[in-house]
Write a structure and sequence with these properties.
CATH superfamily of the largest domain: DNA ligase/mRNA capping enzyme
Structural class: alpha+beta
Radius of gyration: 20 Å
CATH topology of the largest domain: D-amino Acid Aminotransferase, Chain A, domain 1
Oligomer: single chain
Number of strands: 14
Strand content: 25-35%
CATH architecture of the largest domain: 2-Layer Sandwich
Shape: globular
Order of helices and strands: HEHEEHEHEEEEEHEEEEE
Mean pLDDT: 88
CATH class of the largest domain: Alpha Beta
Number of helices: 5
Number of domains: 2
C-alpha cells in the first residue's frame, strides 16, 4: 500500500491514518484518486491546516489529522477502469468505501446547475467546485473533461523578498511576490495578511537564510530585504489591479517542493 503525491513522491509515512484505513478496505488491488485534507471546525478543507499538520514547507512530520476524500477509482481487483465512464467508476468507488465518515470518504457528488452550485459553495466559504462529464473516461491531466472552478482565486507565487517590521508579529510586514513571464520573474505585489505569529516567525527564520543583495524584480519600496527565489507561497486574492498587482491578497501557507507546485505564469 502506497500513497503517492501528484509529483510522484511516496508519502505513505506522512499520512499514517489514511494508510491504515486503506489497508482495511477489504480489496486485493485498487488505485484511488483523491485529495488529502485537514478539515476546519466547520468541516471545510483548510490548506494552511494541512501544511501545519505536516510541519510546514520541507517539514517531515506525519499528519494524523488528515483524511482522504476519494473522487475516482482507476483500478479494482485486477481490472483497469480508466476506459469506464465516470458514473460507473463512481458507483464502484461508493461500493468499496460505503457511506463512511471515517478517514477515507467518497467526495460528495451533486447534479445541479453550475452557477447555482458555485453560488452555494461561495456562500458556505468553500474553495470552489470541480465540474466533470459523467460519461467521460479517465485521462490524466487537464484535458477538458473536468474543470476546477474557484470561489476565491488562489495561485502559487514565489517569494522574492520581504518588508521587515518591528511592529508586525514575527517581524514580517509583508512578503514580496513574483510570477513568471517569459522565463523571468515579474513583481506582482505584496501580501501582509494571513500569517499566524508562529508561522510568521518561522517564515522570517527561513527567509533570513536566503538573503541576497541582488534584486530579482523591480520594486518601488525602501528598506526591503531581497531573498533567493526558493520559497513558494499559496496566495488567495480577489482580483488583479490595472497595473498587474494582486488585489486583497492573503497568505495561506507555503507549498511543499514535493507538491510539484507551479509558479503562476502571466500572459505575454
Amino acid at each position: 500500500m502506497r500513497i503517492i503525491t501528484r509529483g510522484g513522491h511516496d508519502w505513505t509515512e506522512r499520512f499514517p491514518a489514511i494508510a491504515a484505513a486503506a489497508r482495511k478496505l477489504g480489496v486485493g488491488t485498487a488505485i484511488l484518486d483523491g485529495e488529502a485534507v485537514v478539515l476546519d471546525a466547520e468541516g471545510r478543507s483548510h490548506f494552511g491546516a494541512l501544511q501545519r499538520s505536516l510541519g510546514g514547507r520541507g517539514g517531515k512530520k506525519s499528519s494524523e489529522d488528515a483524511i482522504l476524500y476519494a473522487f475516482d477509482l482507476l483500478y479494482f481487483d485486477g481490472h483497469d477502469l480508466t476506459k469506464m465512464e465516470l458514473s460507473g467508476r463512481r458507483h464502484l468507488l461508493k461500493d468499496l468505501i460505503g457511506e463512511s465518515e471515517g478517514t477515507i470518504r467518497v467526495s460528495q457528488e451533486v447534479e445541479a446547475d453550475g452557477a447555482t452550485l458555485l453560488a452555494a459553495a461561495r456562500e458556505h466559504g468553500l474553495e470552489g467546485i470541480i465540474a466533470k462529464h459523467r460519461d467521460s473516461t479517465y485521462r490524466s491531466g487537464r484535458l477538458g473533461d473536468w474543470l476546477k472552478i474557484k470561489c476565491i482565486q488562489s495561485e502559487s507565487f514565489v517569494i522574492v523578498g520581504y518588508e521587515p517590521s518591528t511592529a508586525a508579529r514575527g517581524g514580517i510586514g509583508s512578503l514580496l511576490l513574483a510570477a513568471y513571464r517569459g522565463g523571468a520573474f515579474v513583481y506582482v505585489g505584496s501580501v501582509g495578511t494571513g500569517f499566524k505569529e508562529k508561522e510568521a516567525m518561522e517564515l522570517r527564520r527561513m527567509l533570513d537564510t536566503l538573503k541576497t543583495k541582488r534584486a530579482l524584480v523591480a520594486v518601488d519600496k525602501k528598506g526591503v530585504v531581497f531573498v533567493q527565489p526558493t520559497l513558494i507561497a499559496e496566495i488567495e486574492y480577489r482580483a488583479w489591479t490595472d497595473d498587474g498587482k494582486l488585489r486583497h491578497a492573503s497568505y495561506k501557507g507555503l507549498r511543499d517542493v514535493q507538491d510539484n507546485a507551479a509558479i503562476y505564469k502571466l500572459g505575454e
